[in-house]
Amino acid sequence: MKHNLWKLLAVLVLASMLLAACGGGAAGGDSGGEKVTTSGFVCPEPETQIDVTSQELNLFVWTEYIPAEWKECYELVYGVTINHDEYSSNEEMYAKLSAGGSNYDLVQPTDYIIGLMIRQGMLQELDQAKLPMANYDPNYLNLSFDPGNVYTVPYMAGNDAIIYNADTVTNPPTSFADLWNPEYAGRLVLLDDSRVIIGMTLLTLGYDVNTTDPDQLEEAKNKLAELVPGVKLFDSDSPKTALIAGDVDLGVTWTGEAFTAQQENPAFQFVYPTEGAFLWQDNWTMPVGAPHPDAAYAWINYTSQGNLFWLMLRDFPYIVPNKAALDYAKANETELYDAYMNSPITNVPQEAIEAGHAIEDVGDATPLYDQIWTEIKGGQ
Amino acid sequence: MLKRLRENKSSQGTLLITPTLVFMVGLLIIPLFLTLIISFGKRSADGNVIYTFGLHNYTRILGMNFECQNGQAVCFDPLYAQILWRSLTLAFNSTVLVILLAYPLAYFIARAHPKRRNTFLFMVLVPLWTNFVIRVYAWMMLLRTQGVINSVLGWLAGVVGIHFAPFEMLYTPGAVLVGMVYEFLPFMILPIFTSLEKIDNSLYEAAADLGANPIRTFLRVTLPLSMPGVVAGTILVFIPVMGTFIVSDLLGGKQVILIGNLIQRQFLDARDPTFGSAASLILMAMTLVVTFFYTRKFGFGEEIVAA
Amino acid sequence: MNPYKRSPLIKVATVLVYFFLYAPIIGLIVFAFNSSRTNVFFGGFINQWGPLQMEGSTVLQSPCGPFHWFCDLTKNQEVMSATRNTLTIAFISTISATVIGTMAALALQRYNFKLKAFSQISLYIPIVIPEIVMGIGILVLFSQVFTFLNSTLGLAGDSRLTLGLPTVVVSHIAFSVPFVTLVVQARLQGFDKSFEEAAMDLGANELVTFWRVTFPMILPGVLSGALLAFTLSLDDFVITFFTTGPGSTTLPIYVYGLLRRIITPQVNALSTIWVFVVVTIVFLLQRFQSQET
User: Fold this and answer.
1) What DSSP character marks residue A47?
2) What 3-state DSSP class applies to B42?
3) How distant is the alpha carbon of residue B276 from its chain centre?
4) Distance between CA atoms of A196 and B74, rounded to whole angstroms?
5) Is the domain B84-306 a CATH 1.20.1260.10 member?
6) Structural domains of chain C, count
7) How far apart are CA B305 and CA C12, in angstroms?
8) Which residues contact C274 (CB under 8 A, 6 or more apart)?
9) Hey, is the C-beta of C261 within 8 angstroms of any chain B C-beta?
């Protein structure tokens, strides 16, 4: 019996080695000076020369937020291996980084958590001379969470607003306050985000979304408690799934989700509420102690090029703060460019931008928001 | 020295147990100790730990509210007690359902032909070898309003000619219960099987010879002898159900807040590791208490084991 | 009387429970052939072979036909590396935990030493403590230790101690050892020592006796323990979640992260392959078992 068991063990080991070998497929390759990825994309030359001596680059990024061609091209051009870890919430990223055990070169936090990270001394100042700031639209630079862009480079931006299915919702909402309409009960999906949902309740009461006043928050809590029984689910992972599947008909979601839902079913409409939507922006930052800063600067420069960044238009439907990419797309990928410009989801109307609100870190009041969140969700 | 090692049985034992001790103390006892220290601390403005000694986190969980609306010194805030109670009842219900489903299957396999037993057993293990998260996601596909189950039922209703309104199964506490039962069913089947397998066939024959009908045989022979397996299985099911957060997140639409969700949120969204640590330790204490009383009554199952 | 007779009620119940166990799996496998990329409804099978053609989010034609997502999977570097990590971690931690756990079981069943009671109790703790408690505790420990070591030893850049594959492996060993120990202990209870005594009488020393008498007799228990450790490691989410670092993402973590965006049928394809592999192994095991009986 021992004999057969060893045979079996050998088979198992062999099988898993085969599987592992399968994965190590080489990416594209050189064909006489031209670098091509496995999908047939021709890698552009780097516009700025940056010397990179590091062998690796450690990225800590959002799930599914980087075009595959970027990584392949970068690896081909610079010969640097990319280690790529993902997170699906800012809080997860923050917990990992603040635990101090990790070693990343670049991270993509959303604006509201950057102030906190700066205060905690987790981010290092960036050398502006090494960065292609000219590629970016000034409307997305020098914002309140990082004046002068000392720590950040813009990545992508978006909104949290109202989505509804025009086929099934006969009386469409135009403001956050409309969501409390009893005819929507049992058909709502809300983001599982305490700040956004409590914030939207605060807006309906006329208060500021970043308030720390306990009385105002108490009022918001009571108002929100009226809404919650009618909410079918809270989802910050993939609310479009429930919408497309017909489990819910309307709710609050973000730019990328709304665009994709609309693609699946053109009946979906994304509405910027009268109180003003929530604006957010994801940014590149470099944690303190990054082991390969030269590779990181090279990465930002290379991927910010118009002829590479335009892939974001193709893959991820968000607001693109990169002017160079939009110019490139206008000239070379007119279909994509038109789709981007024609949709109010990606090409946000000026009034909506001005009416919008940005979530900021509330420091000491954070547990209070969470307490409210637990109470309205847990007290059932 | 080797000779001394050979002769001294006690030091042989110590040598054998050393690697285990290193792991247990290093990765278990010390971290728990650290968690305990943190649970007494205070949260700083930015979510860091201020190391002091205070019982405020514990009083908060147990519901003692010192900022009462009506001017009393202390009043009861049921929020966390509700969450704990909800977790307990869910764990209890899941365990009972799991036992009901697992027992017949375990019995079937235990009394199957020896050659086929392993096949049946591995068939139980195969779903476990897919991915935990994917299995939950699969249930979402089945339970959706326009998911597989409702589609099949709708088609059947169409064939028979009855009007059918789809069942709203997903994003309810019921869905969470089904998900928990599904995830942990194999962990009950295996221990019950192990203790049932040990029952000698001659015992059944003897019972039959003495005139006992099948029900009597079951109640007075099978069931008592299988208790160690049931106990072991209960421990393997009850405890994880108390601490799981994914199932309630995905199948409950993030509306069913269990203690596991609460703890996870303290470390991530609320950035209050002191409160989260206290909640973790309370959870651990609860599971220890339940396990202690349970095993005292029913004995500790040595069969925490696959065949 | 047929010792293998069971009442029809039991048989019906068994079929129902097996059906309950496999219904989601079958659903998963069917959807692995879904032509709809968003994978919310089943859009039918892809029945055209040829260059890739899509209409919106439906795949009309694929070079791999209905197996489109399986081919897609091999191009997905993240899945491949996550699978590699998962298997590596599982193998290393299983072998280590089995060795350490078997040693511990022998120590606890057969020897008396000072820390015996303490060891036994500490082995029960990982079983009764919820994973999240353990995961967070380990994360806190590693961060403190690494911060301390990094600053005192002046490590920087790539040589800094961080979370990564080694930390995941170590934590997997930590939660697997107690299970292995319990399994082997159970096997050792009621162990007939007369065989060992006979061997020693015949002149074998302790090491030889162990290797040629004891070990083969406890081997089934050891293998069960190994199997359990392997299963636990393969599927672990919570503890791995808190102890991964750059480049050590495992499959469960990857899938959980993927829930954020569209889960394409790629994930279903992966599950299908996994099930297929496991079933094949089971089948082979059956062949070996029946060969020797």
Assistant:
1) S
2) strand
3) 20
4) 33
5) no
6) 2
7) 26
8) B129, B130, B131
9) no
| Domain end point (choices C48, C70, C92) | C70
Q: Whole-angstrom Cα distance, residue A362 to residue B45?
A: 9
Answer for the pair A101, C143: CB distance below 8 angstroms, yes or no. yes
The size of the B-C interface in CB pairs under 8 A is: 279
| pLDDT in 10s for each residue of chain A, 380 residues | 444 455 555 555 555 555 544 444 444 444 456 788 877 888 998 888 888 898 999 999 987 788 888 999 999 999 999 988 888 788 888 877 877 656 889 999 999 899 889 988 899 999 988 999 999 998 899 888 899 999 999 999 999 999 999 999 999 999 999 999 999 998 999 998 889 999 999 999 999 999 999 999 999 999 999 999 899 989 888 888 889 888 899 999 999 889 989 988 899 999 999 999 999 999 999 998 888 999 999 999 999 999 999 999 888 889 999 999 999 999 999 998 998 999 889 899 888 888 999 998 887 888 888 888 888 887 54
Nearest to C288 among A8, A19, A263 (CB): A8
Task: Kindly report the nearest CA distance between residue A289 and chain C, in angstroms.
Answer: 7
- Nearest chain B residue (CA) to A365: B45
> What's C151's domain CATH number?
1.10.3720.10
The Cα–Cα gap between B186 and A151 comes to 50
Is C3 contained in some domain?
Answer: no
Task: Answer for the pair B243, B259: CB distance below 8 angstroms, yes or no.
Answer: yes
In chain A, what residues touch B46 (CB-CB under 8 Å)? Answer: 116, 119-120, 363
Is residue C270 included in any domain, yes or no?
Answer: no
Write the DSSP string, C134-183. Answer: HHHHHHHHHHHHHHHHHHHTT--GGGS--SSHHHHHHHHHHHHHHHHHHH
Q: Which domain holds residue C228?
A: 76-261
Per CB-CB distance under 8 Å, the chain A contacts of C167 are 101
Q: How far apart are CA A216 and CA A238, in angstroms?
A: 31
- CA–CA separation, B84 vs B87, rounded Å? 5
